[in-house]
Amino acid sequence: MEQTLSIIKPDAVAKNVVGQILARFENAGLRIAVTKKIQLSRADAEAFYAVHAERPFFADLVEFMISGPVVVTVLEGENAMAKNRELMGATNPKEAAEGTIRADFAESIDANAVHGSDSAENADIEINFFFAQRDIV
Ligand code: GDP
């Protein structure tokens, strides 16, 4: 069974749509292996998005990710990474396909509701960033 990491970002948590987003994962056949609501520190956000450190939007991205709590989830299922990316929709909600999480819940490319791992290798790294193996059942 493949695992992938999802983050429900501060905008979607503030909108109180955590349950609606988790239900979309379940309705698509993904299983919630573990989930938790946490407040990221600046150091957490900088480390998590280190691959984007040189990008012009890095400072805004970090600021946004620490602006409120997030919900971090390990999703499990067949093709979990690709399935989650499909449910999320394009990074820019204006370009996101109808019925995707970002089309329905996101406002802008900064406040775009969800994060999802974009490769099996990154999924492993991102899951280990937030969870110990014994937490994942
Ligand atoms: P994702 O995998 O679809 O989340 O997209 P990326 O990994 O490319 O980017 C990570 C996050 O950085 C995105 O979800 C956005 O929140 C943010 N981001 C990406 N590109 C831009 C951009 O051009 N401008 C701004 N402001 N934020 C961006």
Q: Which key features would you list for this structure?
A:
137 residues, 4 strands, 40% helix, 7 helices, binds guanosine-5'-diphosphate, alpha+beta
Poorly predicted regions are none
Distinct small-molecule ligands in the complex: guanosine-5'-diphosphate
Q: What is the rounded Rg?
A: 14 Å
Give me the number of helical elements.
7
Structural class determined from secondary elements: alpha+beta
Question: Any overview of this molecule?
Answer:
With 137 residues, the chain is of the alpha+beta class. The model has no long low-confidence stretch (mean pLDDT 97). It has seven helices and four strands, in the order βααβααβααβα. The chain is 40% helix and 19% strand. It has a four-stranded antiparallel sheet with strand order 2-3-1-4.
Quick gist of this model?
The protein is 40% helix and 19% strand. Guanosine-5'-diphosphate binds next to helix 4.
Layout: helices, strands, pairs:
Blueprint: E1 2-8, H1 10-14, H2 18-27, E2 31-38, H3 42-48, H4 58-65, E3 70-77, H5 80-88, H6 101-105, E4 114-116, H7 120-130
Antiparallel strand pairs: 1-3, 1-4, 2-3
Bound molecules: guanosine-5'-diphosphate.
